[in-house]
TrEMBL record:
This is LRC18 protein. The keyword Repeat applies. InterPro entries: Leu-rich_rpt, Leu-rich_rpt_typical-subtyp, LRR_dom_sf, LRR_domain-containing, LRR_R13L4/SHOC2-like. It holds the Pfam family LRR_1. SUPFAM superfamilies: L domain-like. Gene3D superfamilies: Ribonuclease Inhibitor. Coiled coil: none annotated. The keyword Repeat applies. Residues 220-253 are annotated as: Disordered. GO terms for cellular component: cytoplasm. Residues 89-191 form the Disease resistance R13L4/SHOC-2-like LRR domain.
């Protein structure tokens, strides 16, 4: 059908106007997410006075320099596209406080990105970044910075020391601090108390309990754990966080 194919869906000015919504904060948002767009629609320049623009979850490979026409933008969402670079004109959007570039194919960042001095949230996760410029440390209003799932081997000190930074996500990068091998999980339960007493001095119920625990120990000794027997506790955020109330049932006394 017309308007579809390799170039993606064609957005008309009428469709764009019908996609303008008033966000909860009172700003006007042009929401063109999940529209199958492969080329930046030039018709939306007629709506360049919006404060928020959502072009996420499309097939965009390039953002043209005409993005500079959107001087009122405070919120720009470009996540989940196919962008491998950003235009230098991105640095002219001085009112931006939120920029989401997650899940693209970015291999580098333009120096002009550091001109966005009002940015509070910047998401660069799930890209192909091997380095980030030290000048990113000039974005002194940043509160949240996502750098997860890239190929970063170092985070500049200027970024780590941003004065207002509260959330820095660098997970799943080949950073040296995450290269250390984790200590192997101890599959043998720790004995916290050991009492030495002769068998003849035990009462009947205590003797039965001790014999039962001894039999359990013998079973553990006879077991030959294989690779598939390695215990896994994915639901535990911290040790015993989910088992605290019931740990007496499994702890060896």
């Amino acid at each position: 059908p017309k308007g579809k194919g390799p170039q993606g869906k064609r957005i008309t000015l009428k469709v764009a106007k019908n996609s303008v919504r008033v966000a909860f904060n009172g700003r006007r948002r042009l929401d063109l997410s999940k529209m199958g767009i492969a080329t930046f629609p030039k018709c939306i320049l007629e709506l360049a006075d919006v404060e928020e623009l959502d072009l996420s979850r499309n097939m965009l490979k390039k953002i043209p320099n005409i993005i500079e026409k959107f001087q009122n933008l405070m919120w720009l969402d470009l996540h989940s596209n196919q962008l491998d670079e950003l235009p230098a004109a991105i640095g002219t959007l001085h009112n931006l406080t939120y920029l989401n570039l997650c899940n693209n194919k970015l291999k580098g960042l333009p120096e002009e990105l550091t001109l966005l001095r009002n940015l509070r949230t910047l998401n660069l996760g799930l890209n192909c970044l091997e380095t980030i410029p030290t000048t990113l440390g000039t974005l002194r209003e940043l509160i949240e910075l996502g750098l997860f799932d890239n190929a970063l081997t170092v985070i500049p000190k200027s970024v780590k020391k941003l004065p207002k930074l509260e959330k820095l996500n660098v997970k799943r990068n080949p950073l040296p601090e995450f290269a250390e091998e984790e200590e192997p999980i101890d599959t043998v339960k720790r004995i916290e108390s050991l009492y030495l007493i002769e068998k003849k001095d035990l009462c009947g119920s205590c003797l039965q309990t001790c014999q039962g625990e001894r039999d359990e120990l013998h079973k553990l000794e006879d077991m030959t754990p294989g690779p598939s027997n390695k215990p896994s506790f994915p639901s535990l955020v911290t040790p015993n966080s989910s088992a605290r109330e019931n740990q007496e049932e499994w702890r060896m006394k």
